[in-house]
Amino acid sequence: PPWTLLLLPLPGGGSGSYGPDQSPSETSVSPGQTVALECAVANVAADKVNMNWIRQSPGQKPEGVLFFKTDLSIYRAPGIPERYVPSRDASNKKFLLTIRDVQEGDDSIYFCFAFYGSAGVQTWGEGTRVRVLSDNLPQPRIQLFPPAQEEIASLTCLVSGFFPGYIDVLWRRDSQAQAQGVRTGLVALGEDKTYSVSSYLTVPASEWGSGASYSCVVKHESLVSALEKSISANDCKRQ
């Protein structure tokens, strides 16, 4: 039968009162190696469970990987190669997704989705990030913009050119963490296959005018240490 990706509740939802125990939460692997993801079920025999594997990368829609039926038949989504191999350990109530000869494009978060029973119980795992290691990851660039108007001081930090799309963007005021007034958008994948994201910090105009220094701090797996860029009202006056 053709592959069908159902529109399902978000991870953590579903009609079941518990979800599969998925592990590890993150695993790092070099290109060419093999990685195995584990999904353990409870309160039901494993041979009664149909298991879907779904993945999602930042800025992209969920993508079906494969469907592993109770009779051990396998239906792979279009474009998913045979090096993605599901298996079942019925005695330990565990399901495995083994990815052989890992490639850069395998970097994503993988979710197991179990459904079973006449009532159609549906439960999600919490997801496993497969992190494909590389020495040549594109590093983020920071552009920091001052407020466009004096009444409301809203600073903009544009971070671009990074891959993969997992990133932390933080703000500091005079070297102190600033959480209030922060709003960070969703990462977006560009045509050049790198990601970008914008973060905004809104502060009282009086604080901005006092000359305090505001910093946008970026943490990404391509960086040995955090990347930081600062701006203040005094800097803008000197320009």
TrEMBL record:
Stored SUPFAM superfamilies: Immunoglobulin (SSF48726)
Domain of life: Eukaryota
PANTHER family: TAPASIN
Region of interest (Disordered), residue spans: 11-30
Protein name according to UniProt: Immunoglobulin lambda-1 light chain-like
Lineage: Eukaryota, Metazoa, Chordata, Craniata, Vertebrata
Keywords per UniProt: Disulfide bond, Immunoglobulin domain
Domain Ig-like per the UniProt entry, residue ranges: 20-114, 140-232
UniProt cross-references to InterPro entries, sorted A to Z: Ig-like_dom, Ig-like_dom_sf, Ig-like_fold, Ig/MHC_CS, Ig_C1-set, Ig_sub, Ig_V-set, Immune_Resp_Modulators
UniProt keyword annotation of Disulfide bond present: yes
